[in-house]
Write a structure and sequence with these properties.
Blueprint: H1 2-22, H2 24-35, H3 39-60
Length: 61
Amino acid sequence: MSDLLLGALALVLIFEGLLPFASPATWRRMFEQMTRLEDGQIRFLGLGCISVGLVLLALWH
């Protein structure tokens, strides 16, 4: 189980690092736009990410 969790964490870090590595200017603009969002919008984005992740996890198993 810990190997699976470590692998999942490694994949998250890889995917999170792709955009800043490939296009730092785009990542910076996107990050600046994210700081302008309201708390509710950020929560909705987080909920959407969680939902998509759960659906993908359910489909994988």
